Amino acid sequence: MSERNSSPNMFRPGGGMGGMRRFGTGEKVKPASIYGMFVRIYAHVRQDWKSLAAAVLCLIAISLLQFAIPQLTRITIDHIIPARAFDRLFLVCIGVLGAAAMLGILGYISTSLIATIGQKVLYKLRNDLYRHMQSLDVSFFDSNRTGDLMSRVTNDVNILQQMISSSMMQLITDVFTFTGIALYMLWIDWRLTLLLLATFPFMILTTKLFGKRMRASFRTVQESVADVSDHLQNALTGIRLIKSFTAEDYESERFSARTLKNRDANIRVVRLRAAYEPIIDFLNFAGLAIVLVFGAWLAMKGQMTVGTIVAFIAYLRLLQNPIRHFSRIINTIQQAAAGYERVMDIMNTKAEIVEKQDARSLPPAEGRIVFRQVDFAYNSDTPVLSKFDLELAEGKITALVGSSGSGKTTIAHLIARFYDPQGGAITIDGYDLKDVTLSSLREQIGIVSQDIVLFNGSIIENIRYGSIQATDEEVRAAAKAANASGFIETFAQGYETQIGERGVKLSGGQKQRISIARAILKNPRIIILDEATASLDTESEHHIQEALARLLQGRTCLVIAHRLSTIQQADRIYVLEAGQIVEYGTHDELLLQAGRYSQLYELQFPQSERGRETTITRNN
């Protein structure tokens, strides 16, 4: 088990909209702006510029058609009716129906194009986010909740999808419509138009004030969704533990508390929207009152026709539609902005374990690993290793024993470069780990631990993870070498047997043998066994010891063990306490020293039980 004592820390905003903590760090940064969100989206959209141009042309045509229909109304009232031109009514009817049909066709084309563009953007954004998460350090995942990360990749990106697919099209249409109609209305009567436009600053101010509050509220909603997702993920994966402790009611109460937070956050959003929309509607009706009163006054003075007033009212509705639409889609935009912030929290997080620009590939390793004056701490105030020296001879078995928290697993993590030391150097065959590429390093290291990770899938898929390009025959050979083929072939579907989430359908020994088969298939030069046989029954341990003996042939091996029975044949045993080596030697040499190793041995194997322990041996 890991010596690192840390609990997952949920992401919390740094206080309202004034700032937030960079994801996984204490650095305070400004929240992502809506402008920044649209700029990033446009960077993806412009790659599909032909479709975007076609969509924009459709939207311009829609705006022109919306402009033309009120003109038909004005002509009918001011010219056709007074002239009793019955023959022209049919043309007006054809014009209105034709415009309506074209609006439908153009709307379908523009909606389809923008939805397609939006899906492409989200496809790339989600993949970019996932790839970036894959590039982050192990420490990032140590300090952040799985459920929260899942929510950012799924829920937050889905919210952006809603904004791109519908709201973006509406915004583009409204910009053209608003600009064209405002210019035309100014040309018809600038006085009346300016009176109308005087209501718009109040709409903009209202939208800005409510927008900030809604954005903060939407972020709370999305964080509460992440809390629910995280709790659900933990509860479902730990259902056996919950049932074994009869903790169903306790977990239901905890889940209820999280859903209550989500409910209250959503209610706050609804209340803000319920207060915002009537204010916008009131300002819209104020504009209508201006047109009716001032327009009627102009008509009574003979300065404006009735048809123009009717057309003006129609244009007023079209002019107000962008504001009315924005009052509706502001919820989607602010929700998308909150989701975008949460996505960018991750995208702006930088990995600390990075390759140098001139990093070289590590040649096939002989396996001599040296720690020189290494200092390391997970937290700056809690050192794990201090001026630590250690050497693992190539092709030999080196064992680490000691109390929990003495630094054993940390050493394994440093060799795989999951973390970097704060001081000193770690080399393999004389190459500093920081000077070689991560892939060439980790390709030559195989880890078999007590905490076995298996994916929900078939047995053959899980073994093949050791070498994705391996053939079925190579997978079966690895399973046979790991003493796994026997139990696999007893299943009705053999290697195609589905093992369930985290291998729940297999026993502990079976899961461990699949893990070893995966390591054998990888064929690494360096093997790390981290409590690989802990908590297994005697029969399973015997099968696994045989499999490990095959795996270790000709390789450098680091064995981390609490059970001393597993390391008695190791070439060198180091005893660690508080991050320092206090003893080293072979099993027999350490017993003769009568020190810490001897004390541990006496505790595990009283005199009456001597001779019954098993050992990892090397088949020569």
UniProtKB/TrEMBL annotation:
Membrane topology reported for the UniProt record: Multi-pass membrane protein
Q: Which residues form the ABC transmembrane type-1 domain?
A: 53-335
The ABC transporter domain, residue ranges:
369-603
Q: Which Gene3D superfamilies match?
A: ABC transporter type 1, transmembrane domain (1.20.1560.10), P-loop containing nucleotide triphosphate hydrolases (3.40.50.300)
Q: Where located?
A: Cell membrane
Instruction: Name the domain of life.
Output: Bacteria
The protein's UniProt keywords, in alphabetical order, are: ATP-binding, Membrane, Nucleotide-binding, Transmembrane, Transmembrane helix
Residue ranges crossing the lipid bilayer per the database entry: 52-69, 89-117, 171-188, 194-211, 278-297
Any one GO MF term held by the record is: ATP binding
User: Which CDD domains does the annotation name?
Assistant: ABC_6TM_exporters
Q: Per its record, how is this protein called by name?
A: ABC transporter ATP-binding protein/permease
Which organism encodes this protein?
Paenibacillus spongiae
